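Quick one, T. Sequence first:
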Amino acid sequence: MSDGIYLAANVFVDRLNEQGQSMGQIIGPINTTKLSIKAEAESKPRISNKKASKGQALDDIKIAKPAAIGWEFDDQPAELVAMALMGEVQTINEASGTLTDKPVTLPANNSWVAVGHNNFASEGLVVSQAATELVMGTDYEFNYALGLIRALPGGAVDGGGSITVTGQYNAVSGKRIRGGTKSQTRLRLFGEGENLTNGKRMKFDIYDASMMPSSEMDLSGSDYVSGALEGTAKLPPGKNEPYVVDELTDS
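Structure tokens:
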């Protein structure tokens, strides 16, 4: 009796450089919701023009085309998000500091204006007009994370004007995704798992896939943010095939 394949797998990804070499940053296991391989071929028929068989195929050969690869995931470390946004990851390391009587001009239409820094501490923030300290929530509203301020209707600076801001902004560290900087992403997609229909171990390795985003990444949707890439499997130097799928029998 033959068994089907129902695979529970750990998928890993290795980003490759433009020469197809590993960049030394293997990520995984990744919660992969789709990893598809579509093997394709192109038909090359020789068509009869003879009276009795015109239009029929005298010969028909199939020539392999590059395999189409589809990969979707809902794990979202910065490195994976960068792949889905055609970007690259940059380290963020911004020092803390203090603003002392920083001059800011409030717009007359109660819209926001940036004070020049972000990630402000809520303690010690002082906003003044001339020698008069303004009241948070009555005269103005402040967004600490983004460093934005606006006048509130009916407050002392409703019509806008010059103010000063004094406060502490905190250090920030993390990762920044610089989107739209890479036209393609070269990846090695590989992993191991178990065929749940028969308990056999399986391994797979797509050596070098040239990928690009296949759908939008919705950062404010009602479901988990997911990424999707599609592309073609390439035949690397020294290999006889672009990918392998192994079914293993343990001794």
